[in-house]
Structures are given as C-alpha cells and as structure tokens.
Amino acid sequence: MSTRRGVVINAHGGAIELGDNVSLNPYTILLGHGGIHIGDDVRIAAHVVIVSFEHGTARTDIPMRRQSLVKKPVIIENDVWIGAGAKVLAGANIATGCVIGANAVIKGETVPYGIYAGVPARLVKMRGQDRAVEGKDPSATRRRLHAL
C-alpha cells in the first residue's frame, strides 16, 4: 500500500481492510464505522472520501447529531480506479474492474468493468467497448453543450 500526504484512515470501531497494491493519494479519507474492504490493485485518487455510515434522520424530535449512526459496509473489489474527488457512500459495492469518474457520488452496486460518472453516479460505458451504454451518448451531450 502507498499513501500520500493528508490521508486519513480511521476505523471508528469498524474495520478497514486494504488489499495488495492499493494506492491512497493526497487527502483521501476512509471512515470505517460500518467496515471498508478494498481489494487488490485499487487506485484511489486525491480528495476521495469513503464512508461506511450515515447519520440517523428517522426521528424529528431528536437532533440528527444525537441519533444513532446507520452502519453499512463499503466493498471495493479488485482492479478499481476511483477518480479525484469522488464520494463513496455507505453500502456501496464497487465491482471488479470499475472506473469511478472524478467527483462522482456512488452508492449501491455497480456491474463489473463499468465506467460510472455523475451525481448520482450512473453507468456510462463498459471498459473495452468503444460506445456508450445504450441510452447514454456522451458525445451527444457534448454537442448540445457546444451548441449553447
């Protein structure tokens, strides 16, 4: 594992497991209340935040800061690249070979070798394919933006 300046790894009573050849770049934050598992050959860019808990919000008669945390594990499988500034939220399961775009917000499950981008993150392409996922044409979006 390699880390850079400003990396925060805090299990907060949970567990954080790091596989072989994991890189954590500057100012990455791992908060492991609910557990974080990171597989082998994972690249995590600068300013990524990975949290395995959420604040309780169910009750309105108690301030949120006093409600119990909701702990949900985060699983990041092998050969994953998470772009700069991405947020990986409680309960995320990032499948083998995925790419998570810069500043994306990911929660829930991904499919193996998917490329995800946006807020919330959506599947935009599959690794090894030249075209976007059906219904997603990034070049059409670029054309519309250039027309404005």
Q: What fraction of the residues are assigned to beta strands by DSSP?
A: 25-35%
The gross shape turns out to be globular
DSSP, total strands: 18
Strand order across the largest sheet: 1-4-7-12-15-17-18
Uncertain segments: 137-148
CA-based gyration radius = 17 Å
What's the rounded overall pLDDT mean?
90
Helix content: under 10%
Please give the largest β-sheet: 7 strands, mixed
Tally of alpha and pi helices: 1
Distance between the amino and carboxyl termini: 45 Å
- How does the helix and strand content classify structurally? mainly beta
Task: Return the string of H and E elements.
Answer: EEEEEEEEEEEEEEEEEEH
Structure summarized in a few sentences:
The chain has 148 residues and is mainly beta. 7% of the residues lie in helices and 32% in strands. 26% of the residues are buried.
How does the SSE layout of this entry go?
Blueprint: E1 2-3, E2 8-10, E3 16-18, E4 23-24, E5 29-31, E6 36-38, E7 43-44, E8 49-51, E9 53-54, E10 70-71, E11 74-76, E12 81-82, E13 87-88, E14 93-94, E15 99-100, E16 105-106, E17 114-117, E18 122-126, H1 138-147
Parallel strand pairs: 1-4, 2-5, 3-6, 4-7, 5-8, 6-11, 7-12, 8-13, 11-14, 12-15, 13-16, 15-17
Antiparallel strand pairs: 9-10, 17-18
Structural account:
It is a single chain. It contains one helix and 18 strands. It is mainly beta and 148 residues long. It starts with a strand and ends with a helix. The chain is globular, with a radius of gyration of 17 Å. It has one helix at 138-147, and strands at residues 2-3, 8-10, 16-18, 23-24, 29-31, 36-38, 43-44, 49-51, 53-54, 70-71, 74-76, 81-82, 87-88, 93-94, 99-100, 105-106, 114-117, 122-126. The longest helix has 10 residues, at 138-147. A seven-stranded mixed beta sheet has the order 1-4-7-12-15-17-18, with no helix packed on it. The chain has a five-stranded parallel beta sheet with strand order 2-5-8-13-16, with no helix packed on it. The model is unreliable at 137-148 (pLDDT under 50).
